[in-house]
Specification:
The protein has about 220 residues and is mainly α. It folds into 2 domains: about 10-120, no CATH class; about 135-220. The chain has helices spanning about 10-30, 35-40, 55-60, 70-85, 95-100, 105-120, 135-140, 150-160, 165-180, 190-220. Helix 1 (about 10-30) packs across helix 10 (about 190-220), helix 4 (about 70-85) runs parallel beside helix 9 and helix 4 (about 70-85) crosses helix 10. The model is unreliable at about 95-105 and about 110-125 (pLDDT under 50).
Amino acid sequence: MTTQAPEASQPQRRRAAYLAFVDHIERLCRNDPGARAALRSGLRRDLDHPRARDMHRLLTPLLPEGCGDRAAQAYYTVASLIAAQPRHAFGADQDEDDEREEEPEPVQKQASQEAGEREEESEPPEITPYGSSFGAALGCAAAAKAKPMRLSAAESSIKRLTRQSIRGIHLHLPAVVNQVRATDTAIDWGQLLADLIDWPYRSGRITRHWLQDFYRITARIDQD
């Protein structure tokens, strides 16, 4: 008798959708320099800024149905942050990526299909509901062995970010992301996207998680 896998929870489906979006943006940046330049031009720009116009063609097909302006801004910001990384961050081109010619589906539809496929398998869903916060990334950047970010600078950044309004967080993130990536610390773009989407409604809880994750990691620095 085949054991039916448990149905993916709503947080798991949301995370699957966000990861699908991130994966598409990373492949786009890896394989299409023009698209990467267009996405990068949207850094610190709102949706109506003239510099963001070239992004609409690339991102509109990926937005969930009924996506409001605040949520759309989160998708645009994360896409710009990914595109602003050095080209080597995207790795080498992969043959299987080059062969994909179909149009990208909206991330919600992709997540629904993936969840449906998992229900037919005997293994439980592999995607966890939550990823690693940006506070954890900042903590890891400060604790990096090779070229760490100064602890005082990292702490100043996390305090500044967690005081921001929805507009402020989009403006201040790019500079801090650059500092984190300079230490070769990975950023969970899917979780950052989730947090930016939820920021207008749950900023208190999100900033608490960022601060707790940051101090949990940096507390080990003095102990090492």
